[in-house]
Amino acid sequence: MPPEKEGKCPSKMPWYQEIDGWRIPGLFCPEAFRSALSYKPRPDDLFVVTFPKCGTTWLQNIVACILRDGRPFESALQFFTETPFLEMTGAKAGEDLKRPGAIKMHLPFYKTPWSPKAKYIYIARNPKDCCVSFYHFTESMPAYRFEDGEFDDFFELFINGETDFGEYFDTTLSWWERRDEPNVFFITYEQLKKDTKSYILKIAEFLGTKYKVSS
Which residues form a coiled coil (predicted)? Predict the structure, then answer.
């Protein structure tokens, strides 16, 4: 048996909380999370939905540049205000959102506020890359209290669907099954990386004729 490592004992579990059977980060407000689930989508709403660490921020910025005619955000505050993370901010941030804008969520289809008139872009990623990125994110964020956490510990949580925001495979499958809905655009991180220009144009076309680039 190998000798025990000196130093701190690794934290086997990041700091999460259970809200109505759903695991979310420990610092999130339960009332905000519950209100996000009950949000009533508007016909002009656009949702950017992902499992964590699947290209969320990249896609948010692409969508924002399309909606803002290429103008970058002037500050991080403006970015978070105009692309609110609904599970963290609560429903009011969506209600107060200046349109056109995009609402970010990390939930499976059956948990995401749905309207056939709103639009939803879902981006998936290779689960191996997602897991590795999610581990590094969790380990680097003091709020998770997982500074000494090992990848092997996190991998077990990931593969068993025990990280925050549920199970990768369940979430991705739930949106894959809706990929043919006219108001759902399903894309992968790998597609966007391999042919960025082509997929940005497809996203623009999905957002509406006013954003479509004429050939």
Answer: none
